[in-house]
Amino acid sequence: MTGCPSTQLLEAYYDGELPAGRAAEMAAHVESCVECARELRVLRDTSQLFVSAPRPTLSADVLARLHAELDSLYERSLFRFAELLSGVAAAVLIAATLWGVWIPSSSISDASIETAAPNYASWEASAAALNGDSALPAAAHARAMHTETASWIVMGLSPGDESRD
């Protein structure tokens, strides 16, 4: 080892945190270096002071108050979190309601329904043809089915719910 190690390295040596080879180098250096030996003694003496110092004790009354305060703090933080979540839920509900009110159903035109209903044969037309419902040609029937389905989707209705005309 060249020169004296850093204080952090000396502390790691004292705490037994160095690998065996590095610890052996440190031990040899401390034996030959008066300054590092003195620093190591200061670390040992300081540790001994902490070990031998009397531990503070708390009375039963102080412990009870401390536990009550911690329990109260836990409950307050839990209630704050619940209040926050209920506030977010209320905001989402209000936003959804306002969105539903501000988009009137009269603004939905037949053109938007026609755009939403593509002109191609679908399983509905196939099912109608298999059922023998051939009052309309298959393509026209499929278009009518798509238009009706698109109308339900755009108007927010389910099939058979004719209450919102």
Provide a compact summary of the structure:
By secondary structure, the chain is mainly alpha-helical. It contains 7 helices and no strands.
Task: Explain how this protein is built.
- Helix content is 70%, strand content 0%.
- It is mainly alpha-helical and 165 residues long.
- Among the domains are: 46 residues, no CATH class; 51 residues, no CATH class.
- Helix 2 crosses helix 3 and helix 6 crosses helix 7.
- The mean pLDDT is 76.
Q: Topology, pairings included?
A:
Layout: H1 7-14, H2 20-32, H3 34-52, H4 60-102, H5 110-116, H6 123-130, H7 138-155
**Compute the gyration radius: what is it?**
41 Å
List how many beta strands DSSP finds.
Answer: 0
| Count of helix runs | 7
Structural class: mainly alpha
> How far apart, in Å, are the first and last alpha carbons?
92 Å
Strand content: under 5%
Helical proportion? Answer: over 70%
| Molecular shape | elongated
Please summarize the sheet with the most strands. none
Average pLDDT, rounded to a whole number, is 76
Q: pLDDT under 50 segments (min length 5)? A: none
Order of helices and strands: HHHHHHH
